[in-house]
Amino acid sequence: MFTFPSPVEVFIALIVIVSVIAYILEVEFAGTEHSLEGHPVWLWIERVVAFILTIEFFVRWYKIGNRYPRSLLGSIDLLSVLPFWIGFITPVSCLGLVRSMRILRLLKLYRHSHAMRIFVHALLGSRRYLAGMLLIVFIFVLFSAVGIREIERYAQPDKFGTLFDSIWWTIVTLMSVGYGDAVPTTVVGKLFAQFVMVVGVGLTAAFIGIVGSNVYAQVQKLENAKEPQNEEDREPND
């Protein structure tokens, strides 16, 4: 396992935060399409940050070995600097998208947050249950979308005329958002919507309960055991 001295690790985390804050300020207040426009201070902040993070990446690679770039943390570190270097060969029209990819640097905070690492490991430990529940949710969403489309498409072809519109209504209804942009008007449609709401609430509660209990169990297990090993220290096939 390789880590920089604690002050250096804190400095790197601060650099990441400064980079993201600078991106937000540049987008909101400078109003430029990319960093080559406007005041050069934004471009130089990015250059300094990218240079520091690039040096960090190669130092970790040298200290850890060739398994580092193939690890989760190595991939995150690479994503944090790769867009900057790609920007040198990217058309000017794409530089705005390259600039927006700086937000990926927030993933580097995973290395510095013990709580985040525990939670991610807990979610990974519950992936079997997540896959099963997501399949059930997918089937129910598709069933509901097809049902409401067949019921309402003649009464409201502009709202439920396509399957995509019906899926949108189903998801908005299941999540209890209720934008109100599409509402059943027929009696059968209203009855069907009530069925979707009741079953959807129960299904959502079951999903949260199953995942929540499993995540809690995983968190307790990891808290009582040794801190999860960093991905960059594992073998590539782990």
What's this entry about, in short?
This protein is mostly helical and 238 residues long. Helices cover 70% and strands 0% of the residues. The longest helix has 38 residues, at 187-224.
What does this structure look like?
- With 238 residues, this protein is mainly alpha-helical.
- The protein has 2 domains: 6-112, Voltage-gated potassium channels. Chain C (Four Helix Bundle (Hemerythrin (Met), subunit A)); 124-233, Helix Hairpins (Orthogonal Bundle), CATH 1.10.287.
- It has 10 helices and no strands.
- The protein is flat, with a radius of gyration of 24 Å.
- The mean pLDDT is 85.
What are the defining features of this structure?
238 residues, mainly alpha, Four Helix Bundle (Hemerythrin (Met), subunit A), Helix Hairpins, 2 domains, flat
Number of domains: 2
Terminal CA distance: 16 Å
- The CATH topology annotation of the largest domain reads as Helix Hairpins
Name of the CATH first level of the largest domain: Mainly Alpha
CATH architectural arrangement of the largest domain: Orthogonal Bundle
Q: Structural class of the helix and strand makeup?
A: mainly alpha
Order of helices and strands: HHHHHHHHHH
Poorly predicted ranges: none
Structural Rg:
24 Å
Strand content: under 5%
Continuous helix count = 10
How much helicity do the residues have? over 70%
The coarse overall form would be flat
Determine the mean pLDDT.
85
DSSP strand count: 0
* Major sheet description: none
